[in-house]
């Protein structure tokens, strides 16, 4: 079993909790209140900007051209996600420039950026892989039953192109990281922070400018 597969299996409890989370099930069946989704979009856009910066730090710390180019390609994928959020913002009147991060968002972004700035590239991959793999997992699991106004969100993460990005980052993790305690801690912590992000979104813990 590859390291990425092992780490994902070790966090199967958190992945299952995310799939069963009322925020996620509300996206799937379309019953999630609109204002909670809008708050999530605003927080997630803030998060994705930090995620992009973490990839940029991966570029800066790359030891070879192949790694540099992979991080750059992954960064381009985040730009596409941000364009999706821009589309939501335009339709729903969300001012993404005025977002104030809630504690769950700050905890996750600070963890990512600290890991990317101070850890080695293997640890950076371990901290970033959970976001990609979890969202691909959720999209693929939800797409057969997704209905309602959030179908675009599900389709985005169920798309084979997103799966390819997740698999690319996992392959980079397998190449650059060893199964050290630090790598395992980074992966597990990121999965915990993913669940915390959904908790905050479900509670309505989001700042949405322009509303």
Automatic annotation (TrEMBL):
Residues 14-203 form the Thiaminase-2/PQQC domain. Pathway: Cofactor biosynthesis; thiamine diphosphate biosynthesis. Gene3D superfamilies: Heme oxygenase-like (1.20.910.10). Pfam families: TENA_THI-4. GO terms for cellular component: cytosol. PANTHER family: BIFUNCTIONAL TH2 PROTEIN, SI:CH1073-67J19.1-RELATED. This is Thiaminase/transcriptional activator TenA. It comes from Geodermatophilus tzadiensis.
């Amino acid at each position: 079993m590859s390291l990425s597969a092992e780490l994902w299996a070790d966090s199967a409890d958190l992945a299952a909790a995310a799939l069963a989370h009322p925020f996620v099930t509300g996206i799937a069946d379309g019953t999630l209140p609109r204002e909670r989704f809008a708050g999530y979009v605003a927080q997630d856009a803030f998060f994705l900007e930090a995620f992009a910066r973490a990839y940029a730090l991966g570029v800066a710390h790359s030891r070879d051209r192949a790694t540099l180019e992979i991080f750059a390609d992954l960064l381009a994928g985040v730009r596409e996600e941000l364009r999706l959020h821009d589309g939501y913002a335009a339709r729903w009147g969300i001012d993404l420039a005025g977002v104030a991060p809630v504690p769950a968002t700050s905890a996750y972004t600070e963890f990512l950026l600290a890991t990317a700035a101070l850890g080695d590239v293997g640890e950076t991959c371990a901290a970033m892989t959970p976001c990609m793999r979890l969202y691909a997992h959720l999209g693929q699991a939800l797409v057969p039953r997704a209905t309602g106004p959030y179908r675009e969100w599900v389709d985005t993460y169920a798309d084979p192109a997103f799966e390819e990005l997740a698999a690319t980052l996992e392959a980079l993790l397998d190449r650059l990281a060893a199964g050290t305690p630090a790598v395992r801690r980074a992966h597990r912590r990121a999965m915990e922070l993913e669940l915390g992000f959904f908790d905050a979104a479900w509670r309505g813990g989001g700042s949405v400018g322009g509303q």
